[in-house]
Amino acid sequence: MGEKSQRGYVEFGEFRSERAGVKKVGTFAGVFCPVVLSMFSALVFIRMGYLVGNAGLLVTLGQFALAYLIVVFTVTSICAICTNGAVEGGGVYFMISRTLGPECGGAVGSLFFFANVVSSALCISACTEALVENFGPNGYLVGSNPGIPDGWWYRFLYRSILNAIGLGVSLAGASLFARTSLAIWVTILICLSSALISFFVTPPAKIDSPDTNRLVNTTAFNYTGLSSATLYENLFPSYAHDYTADGQLVDFASVFGVLFTGVTGVMAGANMSGELKNPSRSIPWGTLSALVFTALWYVALSVLTAATCSRELLQNNYVYLLPINVWPPFIAVGMLMATFSAGLSNLIGASRVLEALAKDNIFGSLLRPMVSRSSNPVLAVLTSWLLVQIGIMADSLNAIAQVNSVLFMTSYLAINLSCLGLDLASAPNFRPTFKHFSWVTSLLGFAGCVALMFGLRALYACGAALACGALVVALHLLSPAAADPTWGSLSQALIFHQVRKYLLLLDPRREHVKFWRPQMLLLVASPRHSAPLIDFVNDQKKGGLFVVGHVRVGELCGAGDPLADEHKYWLKLIDHLKVKAFVELSLARSVREGAAQLARLAGLGAMKPDTVLLGFRDAAPPRDFFRDPVSPYKTEQFDLECGEVIFPPRGPLGARLSAAEYVRIVSDVLCVNKNVCLCRHFHRLDMAAVERRCPSLKYIDVWLVELMAPSCEEPFTVRGLFALQLAAVVRSARGWQHLALRLRAVAGPAAPPPALLGNVPPPLAPASLSSPSINARLLLFTEAGRTVTLGPPALAGLAPAAPYALGERLERLTKLLRINATTHIVNEWPDPQEFSRRGSDEGRDTYQNVSLDYLQVVNSIIKRSSEATAVTFVQLPSPPPLSPQGSPSDDLVCEQYLKVLDEFTKELPPTILVRGLKSVTSTSL
Q: Which pLDDT score, from 0 to 100, does residue 839 have?
């Protein structure tokens, strides 16, 4: 403790708290007094007559009750947050940002900063009004003497002088204001006490109208003293014209907007959090006690005002407390002290919020100069003062009050939303020591703020909502803090909470082929060689699941997780490529074992990949897309990290995996009943050229033909339809829609004539294309409840028919599947039997008997048809059967299988070899 004690703080893990000796402001001086002074501000001495005279006593008390109810709910939320952890500088902004995250916190914090600025301008305007009413021409304290001159420019001068004095005090330090707040509070308390006493001792009299009131010709109005008749007269609303706002008609909303400024000061104590000894204790106790204190004074003043002053006096003389006081200078001093101290408090609060925004790097370099190395943010104070100077140009105090109320209600709304979200998310670390809080109070506070904002001043509320929404979007896209992992975000907790519930509701037993969507697992060896493929699969997923998987060969050795550090770089990769994918890493003794783990276990619940994609195993030299200067994926962030190369360049896949291991990976995927795709030549895919509609790329091709056994029925198998569905999904993705989809099939026997189909008239409608059989070769048609089979059994003994019969069937199929594609029948496809050396024996010798000439002819046919093709889908032949324990002959069999695939797809465009096991198409509603 020796060295740490000298530095003045105690560290526990990553938590740092300054020692109490550094912060010298306690609950009373640091919270209670600032809150009371800010809440009294312009309302208590200058606008009580405006409230009671227009709204009447009953409505005024009802508005106070509504305002205090919302504020009490908000204060419970503030107390819950500030007793749930250490509160630092920035007060309410700090609470919101650490709960809602940098985007929402920065947006609401910015509005809260402007709310403090507007509130400071309002208080300075009120102070100027009090100054002129007392010391202006024919002012109450100067009598018939000239007094200080009046006029718009003179009032602007007085406001500027008061704002400059506030700037000087703020630059001297907030601690100076906190120390003097007690003296100011005592002074205002004496002034208020004199006002209460005056209601009982001042006899009835005629009170002159102020010179600023040019709406009436009457020069004096009645002060009746305590009178039941006067009380009854003032019980109900009677809205008149506001003589301080060019005669605008007063209504319920304008009265409430002014009244609400009397409760906005509740944030003053939270704004001083950086100056408090113990914010978690001082903010709740100081704020709640200040609420009770001010509520009692407001109620007392409202009732006594309604019982002693005529309606005309209240509507035409807002500073009526001064002439009826036992000693008028008491009220004059109270007016000036209350308004000036409240304006100063808001100026200091605004500067602290601005400094907190700068420290959190919310707006990047824009606010970086606002950060001060000393305890007083000088530049932030100067900026706040300048904005207040702009705000005081508005001449009407009541007009400023409307904007001020909406901005503060926006802040209150965000506070309640934060607590509501924390409670609903059931975050284990949300354990506030303040016990008088629940989600109900937060919900009521939130709903009350929304209702009042849009119910009273819808235009201002819409403006605040649009400003907040625009800031959220801008900060999400541009703010450096948005990418900072150390920030907590309530949205993540709520998303987790809801996703868990929805995953439990997503029952895999209720899956239906009508609602199938791709769920892809892409196994990647090195992302620097696979960037285009990752980008392509992101387009292929069509709102489905996309998981990028990687296998690290190794074992746990008890020295920590060897994949922990690597995982964060994969997440950076996902962000760099701008793909919507999850990352799954596996540590296994072999690549095959890790791939099997990922294929079997990746995903959660019903959201598991059903299709596994692998890069092709060949000896082609890989291309490093992170270092290639012409690559759109070029980046340096993965090259060096702590002196080491991240995602180190690797050789060809064929140099890292044996043929047997690669083929066994494919077999393992099929064994667990998942579709498999082998992707080749994707290093040639130029996604940018596709998106900018390059003339040389026009088509997506689907070859609905089996390499080893071409037949006219192949297009109608589950495997063929799976390839067709994948191609249709790719074409529907944004950036691919301009490409034409072409289906290619091999000519063969046609469908039987209608005479063989009984009484079923054309056109026929497919009943189902979703047979679960892997070896399905039949297409079923129904009409009027009858089922007819079109396939080899029905075609036995028929002579070969013209190629157009197959084309017609494919066109009808694509129409029924709502797939926009053109059909092309290939007549020159060779018969593999003619090229076989010994006949086509089934089993392990199948691929050894395939002629190289046959493969080259097939490859040339596809190549000639693919000059303007962006991506080609072809059928993947079934991998050869291998012995369970492995044998030396397996290597030869696997090498021959891969050699067949290599010759089959050599020099083609980006090609996907597809073997689908599951039905993914349907024509039913």
A: 44
Q: Which helix (DSSP H) or strand (DSSP E) does residue 61 occupy?
A: helix 48-82
Token duo for residue 489: 């975000």
The contacts of residue 771 (CB under 8 Å, 6+ apart) are: 718, 778, 919
Compute φ and ψ for 614, nearest 5 degrees: -130, 150
241-242/699-703 β-pairing: unpaired
Q: Are 266 and 286 in contact (CB under 8 A)?
A: no
d(CA 36, CA 33): 5
**Amino acid of residue 465:** A
List the structure tokens of 563.
Answer: 């994949």
- Is a pLDDT exceeding 80 seen at residue 491? no
Element (H, E) at 522: strand 519-523
- Provide CB contacts within 8 A for 382, sequence distance 6+: 167
Angle between helices 329-359 and 174-201 (to 10 degrees): 150
Sign for the CA dihedral angle at 619, 624, 628, 630 comes to positive
Q: How far apart are CA 128 and CA 767, in angstroms?
A: 83
CB 746 within 8 Å of CB 710: yes
What is the spatial distance between Cα 460 and Cα 408, in angstroms, rounded to a whole number? 12
Q: Which of 232, 206, 256 is nearest to 47 (CA)?
A: 256
Looking at 646-761, which runs of residues are DSSP E strands?
675-680, 699-703, 740-746
Query: Measured between alpha carbons, how far is 791 from 713 in angstroms, rounded to an integer?
Result: 7
Identity of residue 49: G
Average pLDDT for 818-835:
83
Q: What digits encode the pLDDT tens for the residues 74-123? A: 989 888 887 877 667 666 778 778 777 787 888 888 888 998 899 899 88
Residue 852 has what pLDDT?
87
